[in-house]
Structure formats: structure tokens, C-alpha cells
Amino acid sequence: MANIKSAIKRAKTNEVRRAHNSAQKSAMRTSVKKFLVAVDQQEKEQAAVLLKEASRSLDKAVTKGLIHKNAAARKKSRLSSKYNALNA
Questions:
Q1: pLDDT above 90: residue 39
Q2: What structural domains and CATH numbers belong to the chain?
Q3: Which of 9, 37, 47, 84 would you call most buried, defined as having the most Cβ atoms within 10 angstroms of its Cβ?
Q4: How many C-beta atoms surround the C-beta of residue 73 within 10 A?
Q5: Where is this region: Disordered (predicted)?
């Protein structure tokens, strides 16, 4: 455990940020999984709404620094290609 006052504060803030980041990342993964489930069940209308939500959550994760922008772009591209295959 840290002994210096600033190190104690840093440890506390790191723990708070870690919890917040993991919650945000979990919400992002959940939105992506909901979309994938809708695609598997051939629900076109639901998939359209969930694709928009998943893309938004990926973009938010990039702005928060949770994932890299290229990773988000790759995931969004794969999700949209699944959606396009569903509608084809």
C-alpha cells in the first residue's frame, strides 16, 4: 500500500477510473452482442436499431479512450457487413 499522500490519492482515483472504464466497456460489449443476437434471429427491424446503438457505443468508447479508433472502425465495419448480409 502507498505511504505518501499523493500516492494514496492516485491509488483511489485509479480504482474509481478502473471501475468506470470497465462499466463503460461492458456496456459497449453488451450493445454489440445484442445486435449480433438480433442478426442471428433474423430480426431486421430490431437489428437496424441495435446497429445504430452499437455504432454509437463504439464511437463513445473511442472518445473516452477505452478502445483505439481503428479497432472501433473495424468492429463497426464488421457489424455493418453482417447487417447488409441479413438484408441481402
A1: yes
A2: 5-87 (1.20.58.110)
A3: 47
A4: 13
A5: 1-27
Residue 69 to residue 43: CA distance in whole angstroms: 29
Side chain identity, residue 25: K
Name the band, by pLDDT with cuts 50, 70 and 90, for residue 88: confident
C-alpha cell at 26: 461492458
CB atoms within 10 A of CB 33: 12
Length of the chain: 88
C-beta atoms surrounding 50 within 10 Å: 22
Phi, psi of 79, deg, nearest 5: -65, -45
CA of 60: how far to CAs of 30, 82, 86, in Å?
14, 21, 26
| Per-residue model confidence (pLDDT) at position 31 | 97
